[in-house]
Design a protein that fits this description.
heterodimer; A: 239 residues; mainly alpha; two-stranded antiparallel sheet; 6 helices; B: 93 residues; 3 helices; 90% helix; 0% strand
């Protein structure tokens, strides 16, 4: 029994090798790209929508709504990054049901790569929203003594993101495999159903946490603007 | 008792102890969080989406400490570095 799909190597040439993680990552990417291409080939605006367009609209609208609820900002800026994270993790977790599929999110390499994407995206969004000086100032907030804590927090939350996703998905497949050895008749199905739920929740949690981190880097700026807008509104009401 | 046996025995005992201590303590914390958010839900059913989302995020954050324990114990059982070191030594000799 192996702990990650990294150890299954399909093809190797010198330093470069294609293991199960890579192959199934490509498979998930292909499913996402080809699926959305097939659906968005014929988009319609009248009342008779195709099933695929309905599905994609629900997914995109749902993600947009969640982003709007959490950040209180226009979701367009965050939708590509957060939506990609959510769709990739959700699809690769749900496909665990297919026999023979090893979820790429059950490998620490994939989850570390995703967490590193978040780690890089936070300063990019932060600088885009409030400039280099404004972003760097968030590190010495509330006081300059918090600087080491802020940097440490930045690093540990990235590691936590990676290990949380890896641990959850790996534990799902591991428990199913252990139960298969102990009680192979009925219980693995139950654990698979639970694993499906956990996989979707983890996809949600991962993207929401990424969004919360990004929003916290962009917020200071927006909060001032919002407070101004709120004051203006209240003044209007008073008048 | 040879050192290999000692490493195997301590690894197995600690793998059990890691989950056995880490999981229940986390479960207590998670139970507190869920019971509090259920009370909040009962008081303010209108705020259900906000409370549910905050609960999910909080519970996932708490849960990650139990997951760390699980990962450590899985590493101790299936990918134990010390055990592998001695297995490699035995293989080369």
């Amino acid at each position: 029994m192996d702990i990650t799909p990294d150890s299954i190597v399909y093809w190797r040439s010198g330093l470069f090798k294609v293991n199960a993680t890579l192959a199934f990552t490509w498979l998930v990417m292909a499913i996402l790209v080809v699926g959305s291409w097939l659906v968005t080939r014929r988009l319609r605006t009248d009342t008779s929508l195709s099933r695929g367009q309905n599905l994609l609209e629900i997914v995109v609208e749902g993600i947009q709504g969640q982003i709007r609820d959490i950040t209180q900002q226009d979701p367009g800026r965050y939708l590509p990054f957060i939506g990609t994270l959510f769709l990739f993790i959700a699809v690769s977790n749900v496909l665990t049901l297919v026999p023979g599929f090893r979820p790429p999110t059950g490998s620490l390499s994939t989850t570390s790569a995703l967490a590193l994407c978040v780690f890089v995206a936070v300063p990019i969004y932060g600088i885009a929203a409030q400039g280099v000086r404004g972003y760097l100032k968030t590190y010495i907030r509330p006081s300059v003594f918090m600087l080491p804590m802020n940097i440490l927090g930045e690093l540990t939350r990235t590691i936590a993101l990676a290990i949380r996703l890896f641990g959850n998905i790996m534990s799902g497949s591991m428990i199913a495999a252990i139960l298969l050895a102990i009680a192979p008749l009925f219980f693995p199905i139950l654990m698979n159903a639970l694993g499906l739920l956990i996989g979707l929740i983890q996809a949600y949690i991962f993207s929401i946490l990424a969004l919360v981190f990004i929003a916290s880097a962009t917020r200071v700026h927006e909060e001032g603007r919002q407070a101004q807008a709120r004051n203006a509104q209240e003044e209007k009401v008073d008048e | 008792m040879s050192s290999v046996e000692l490493i195997g025995m301590i690894s197995i005992i600690m793998a059990g102890a890691t989950v056995g201590l880490g999981a229940p303590i986390t479960a207590i914390g998670e139970g507190w969080a869920v019971s509090r958010s259920m009370a909040a839900l009962a008081q303010q059913p209108d705020a259900a989406p906000v409370i549910t989302r905050a609960m999910f995020i909080g519970v996932a954050m708490i849960e990650s400490s139990a997951i760390y324990c699980f990962v450590v114990s899985m590493i101790l059982i299936f990918a134990n570095p010390f055990w592998n070191h001695f297995a490699n030594l035995a293989g080369t000799q």
